[in-house]
């Protein structure tokens, strides 16, 4: 996340200016704040939103209500926020699907124009895994197989960034892999262990136990830097594909045209909670790396993510739905 750190430093003066302006504005919020989680309860986005909501309620002096509004891979709940008044009282906690949806689907909103991205809260890397006895042990060896046998190497795809990371890898390797669709990691892992499917990109928390237990082999990690959890596992970027980076993440967004003072306050207050040890520990337990950024950095991050996944979809020949 080096690029996030650099952008945060550059954007800090803007955030301070906005906060100074905020002191001259009427107290915000004047009513309860709703955070829509456009996914099912129990996932990382839902848990993180509720952890933040619990701490922001006393800070803001108003109730922070977390509401699950599911459907269409997160599009339905997110659309509610896109169409909300720009007063900061209706927010959403979104995942990488927010950027992936812009590449895969025709949405009722413009992902880049209809939202204010307020802070990138956390990031979770993906791990490239295979069965323990799969012949490739390194990125270079897998790349050679993909290039020599276009379409013969299969990958377990569960949709979203997990699927598109495999497509991006195959394209960068100069070949092609064939997707075997699964409803989720739980369904895919047994077939991966039994070599009914060759490889998979999945989140670090989802595969860590299987890797540590020797049931799956970790080949590389998709973050820009190595993970403290698996320090001996190389990144894909250092293993032959410079610049390769993919992750799931969580961010707070609001409707477009939020007043800068309100946007800065929401961002700063949320980021402050990420410094609280108890909250950080809960996020780390989910396999997440707490981040915290200014709105300017977060907006740029999402724009880059949308561009990246749109390029992957185009390269893979996937039709937008």
UniProtKB/TrEMBL annotation:
UniProt signal peptide: 1-24
Annotated keywords: Signal
Family statement drawn from the similarity comment of this UniProt entry: Belongs to the UPF0065 (bug) family.
InterPro entries the UniProt entry points to: BUG, Bug_dom1
Record's protein name: MFS transporter
PANTHER family in the record: BLR1237 PROTEIN (PTHR42928:SF5), TRICARBOXYLATE-BINDING PROTEIN (PTHR42928)
